[in-house]
């Protein structure tokens, strides 16, 4: 057995930092964090300072590297998307299919079944639609949205069994509490999003097993003092996890800071990119369901908009969200790292991801002190 030794950087294990220590990896998994006097023989990688952390996990990635999953829902597209995000520290992601036809959804499911069998950074599938509310459609096509039917429940459960990790975003208006319960009990991760529901309707789905909300604040009923909406229900419900897009465009930092302070319970806020194909690409526009999305430069990062100004996903990468969190959300570095590693892993129930405890996958990212990515590793191998 050949061990790999990583030293020279501060090690963040998912909970705390270790200084003057080394990470020992064997057979692609973490063996231990040890002092120099305890190191076995092995292949040594030495860093000149910086931070070594578990690789980032992104639960919502529509595209990257010049490819949208909707354009070609295939395993090859999923690999291309994962490759496009890896230079920014993401070692595990869920390719995300936004609202599309039944054929496209079926193709994405088949592609994910193949992609998760490899070790190329694809950890499951996220279906964001078609069971969304036209009243909160965002950049999705309202004409393709529809309620969940019994056959959909059956198909999602079968897909989860074959893929392993399946996340589905649904509007409370389009799915019953009983359907949520059936899906959740079968291991499908249900997230409420693109919904104009009342807080009471949201709470009913949460109590039935819905585990999260998709891009908190965006495309959902807002927090009012007499009508708390989906935002209020998500922040108040203790078991609910909330993905957030921290790019300076989707949500004002004051709202995110307020939500971070207010969120109660085991459920936490965690980073997602909601990235489109332009991340990892030099292109400045792409086509989404026949509509042109263009990149507008400026601000913390570029933003992506339709011709009418509607935001259409993001142009942010996961490393940038961590920098945004530290700079604009006033997060301690450890918490910002957890929001890109440990918390999304817990939300998705990827038990061996997102931390560097013994037995965990050795998916790693090395960052400079300025939080720029220098190298990534999957199962201890340079990626």
From TrEMBL:
Keywords: Carbohydrate metabolism, Hydrolase, Metal-binding. Its EC number is 3.5.1.25. Substrate binds at residues 139, 218-219, 226, 250, 311-313. The active site is at residue 274. GO terms for biological process: N-acetylglucosamine catabolic process. It is an enzyme of class 3 (hydrolase). Zn(2+) binds at residues 128, 194, 215. Residues 51-381 form the Amidohydrolase-related domain. InterPro entries: Amidohydro-rel (IPR006680), GlcNAc_6-P_deAcase (IPR003764), Metal-dep_hydrolase_composite (IPR011059), Metal_Hydrolase (IPR032466). Binds 1 divalent metal cation per subunit. One of its GO terms (molecular function) is metal ion binding. Belongs to the metallo-dependent hydrolases superfamily. NagA family. This is N-acetylglucosamine-6-phosphate deacetylase. It comes from Rhizobium tibeticum. The lineage of its organism: Bacteria, Pseudomonadati, Pseudomonadota, Alphaproteobacteria, Hyphomicrobiales.
């Amino acid at each position: 057995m050949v061990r790999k030794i990583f030293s020279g950087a501060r090690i963040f294990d998912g909970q705390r930092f270790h200084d003057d220590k080394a990470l020992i990896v064997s057979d692609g998994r973490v063996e231990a964090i040890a002092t120099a006097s305890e190191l076995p023989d092995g292949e040594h990688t030495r860093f000149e300072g910086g931070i070594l952390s578990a690789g980032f996990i992104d639960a919502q990635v529509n595209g990257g590297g010049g490819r949208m999953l909707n354009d070609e829902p295939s395993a090859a597209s999923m690999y291309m998307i994962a490759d496009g995000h890896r230079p920014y520290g993401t070692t595990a992601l869920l390719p995300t299919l936004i609202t599309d036809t039944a054929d496209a959804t079926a193709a994405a499911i088949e592609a994910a079944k193949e992609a998760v069998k490899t070790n190329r950074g694809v950890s499951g599938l996220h279906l964001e639609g078609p069971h969304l509310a036209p009243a909160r459609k965002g950049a999705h096509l309202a004409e393709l949205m529809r309620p969940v039917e019994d056959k959909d429940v059956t198909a999602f459960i079968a897909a989860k069994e074959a893929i392993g990790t399946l996340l589905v975003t649904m509007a409370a208006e389009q799915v019953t509490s009983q359907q949520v319960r059936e899906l959740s009990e079968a291991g499908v991760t249900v997230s409420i999003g693109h919904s104009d529901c009342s807080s009471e309707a949201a709470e009913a789905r949460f109590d039935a097993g819905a585990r999260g909300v998709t891009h908190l604040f965006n495309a959902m009923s807002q927090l009012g003092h007499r009508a708390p909406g989906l935002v209020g229900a998500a922040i108040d419900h203790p078991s609910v996890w909330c993905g957030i897009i921290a790019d300076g465009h989707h949500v004002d930092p004051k709202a995110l800071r307020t939500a971070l302070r207010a969120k109660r319970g085991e459920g936490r806020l965690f980073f997602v990119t909601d990235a489109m194909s332009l991340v990892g690409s030099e292109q400045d526009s792409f086509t989404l369901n026949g509509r042109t999305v263009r990149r507008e430069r400026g601000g913390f990062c570029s933003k992506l908009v339709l011709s009418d100004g509607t935001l259409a996903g993001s142009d942010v990468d996961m490393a940038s969200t961590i920098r945004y969190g530290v700079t604009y959300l006033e997060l301690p570095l450890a918490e910002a790292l957890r929001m890109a590693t440990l918390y999304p892993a817990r939300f998705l129930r990827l038990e061996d991801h997102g931390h560097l405890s013994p037995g965990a996958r050795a998916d790693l990212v090395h960052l400079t002190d300025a939080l720029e990515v220098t190298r990534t590793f999957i199962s201890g191998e340079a990626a």
